[in-house]
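User: Can you help me understand a structure? I only have the sequence.
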Amino acid sequence: MQNTIKKPELLAPAGNLEKLKMAILYGADAVYLGGKRFGLRAYGGNFSKEEMIEGVKFAHERGRKVYVTANIFPHNNDINEILPYLQELVEVGVDAVLVSDIGLFMLIKNEVPNLEVHISTQANNTNWRAVKAWQDLGAERVVLARELSFAEIKEIREKTDVELEMFVHGAMCISYSGRCLISNYLTGRDSNRGACTQPCRWKYNLTEEKRPGQFFPVTEDENGTYFFNSKDMCLLPYLKDIIECGVDSLKIEGRMKSIHYVASVVSAYRHAIDSYFENPEEFTIKQEWIDELNKVSHREYTSGFSYHKTSCDDQIYNTTSYEHTSDFVGLVLDYDEETKIATIQQRNHLTVGQEIEFFQPDAPLFKQTITEMFNDEGISIEVAPHPQQIITMKMDKPVVPYTILRRDVVTEEN
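Assistant: Let's start by predicting it. Here is the structure, written out as tokens:
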């Protein structure tokens, strides 16, 4: 039904208040976060009411939006307790709430009608009829299942008017639309109520019923296999196709990832989206955007279901480890323009003589070798080994608060 291409919202994860600020400063149009209850990331940091108030204020002052997840599969006791929480979200001023349960959806529509509702990917909306049904019920947005191709998304767009949101980057679940019970069975922690322990990333071997105690690796890896271990989604190379599908919001996964991850991934997609709309006809993917995505901790990338059904090539069989090309080592807290001195919070081992890259919200990257640094008492030091140690150093170029310091992994290993 919609046939004009509009600039999609860039939606970023906010696992805590610091990540919220980083996401917004590095280019997100909106963030999604969880409160202390009713979301699917029980161990993701999450927000108290006071933190949510501060986060919403920070976002709204910059013209950005905040969405809150309440997308567990609720039981009776949850329904009995959630209404005061929803009313609290209205008081805080959040822009929307995400739900997956139709009973909870109707509760909001009946009891908190001024709270905008987005339908979570957990509702696994894989066809236009389902999306149209949510639209007719009054949902303002539907988050599409990850199991859709671009062709299917285009058809959904053509036959519906509700806002559509899709995942473009981040971890993939081995189970359909995230509905997994492995964590429940192996650990007793319910993945559908926010307590997933990610057992799909553990090491596994096979056994044969008549050979108890004999373990057979599925591959040649002597440590076993990781056959539940999906590659990470990365759709930035296909951004033109995504935008031309007509979706309204592009969602990055990762509320439990680092601020380095949030800033880097948001920045890459921000620049790519803006570049497309500056000149759609001549738009090309720049290597610097891909390099930025490779700097953060990630598994090997895949395009998921976008062009074809997934196969064995979309799984990782020989490791559970992540790869990255840069280490996050510090965060700028303050900068004095007169003295050119930056105050920095150490996040990893820093040593005089290291070459450090400075990654800023609204300025080009630059590198600088540390020639001297000082502790919080003004004493010159060679090494900053203590977690979150406060140091100062003179800068070759100006920096702003929330600038990320990182060093090249290859350089350090060499």
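Now, to help you interpret it: Confidence is low (pLDDT under 50) at residues 220-225, 314-319. Residues 356 and 407 are 5 Å apart (CA to CA). Let me know which part you'd like to focus on.
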